[in-house]
Every structure is written in structure tokens, then in C-alpha cells.
Amino acid sequence: MNFLSKLLQAIGFIPGIVTTVEGLLGHSTGEQKKDAVMSFLQAALSTTDAVMSREIVDQDGFKKGLSEVVDGVVTCFNASVWAKTMPPQSVA
User: Fold this and answer.
1) Cα(15)–Cα(17) distance, rounded to whole angstroms?
2) How many structural domains comprise the chain?
3) Which helix (H) or strand (E) holds 5?
4) Is residue 91 part of a domain?
5) Tell me: the pLDDT tens digits for 46-79?
6) Cα 71 to Cα 32, 53, 75, 85, distances in angstroms
């Protein structure tokens, strides 16, 4: 599977990952929960392999982009009915 396909697939998993992490680490800080989400995403994308094969040429920029996507998903969740059934989330 090429990298773009893997990236789009991983982005599709973000809402489920955020929900799972919130359920597991609900009383943790937003930063701890975000770190857990980012760890899951990096593992799912095999970012180490992508860096080694030069599909990611700016690793810091890539992580920043994923972080912004996670922030956006959490913002959408917190603005929705979902927030009424789960404790409020925050991301660092």
C-alpha cells in the first residue's frame, strides 16, 4: 500500500482512536491522552519505515500535521452530542 493510502486510512481511524483513548485514560491530562493517540497513529502509519524510505522528508512537520488533525477531531467531538455522553476532553 502506498503512503498516501496509509495516511488516509489512518486519518479515518482517528475518531475511533480518540474515543478509545478517552475511555481508557479519561482521568488523564489532555496532553497524556494526545500522546497516546499520537503513539497509536505513528504505529499504525509505520512512520519509521516511511522516514527511512523517504516518503516523509520532514518528520517534525508530519507529526505537527497529525497533531493538528487530532486537535480538530477532538474539537468536533467536544462541540457535538458526543461530548454530552463523555467527560470533556482537552488536548494540549
Assistant:
1) 5
2) 1
3) helix 3-24
4) no
5) 766 766 677 778 888 988 998 999 999 999 988 8
6) 13, 28, 6, 19
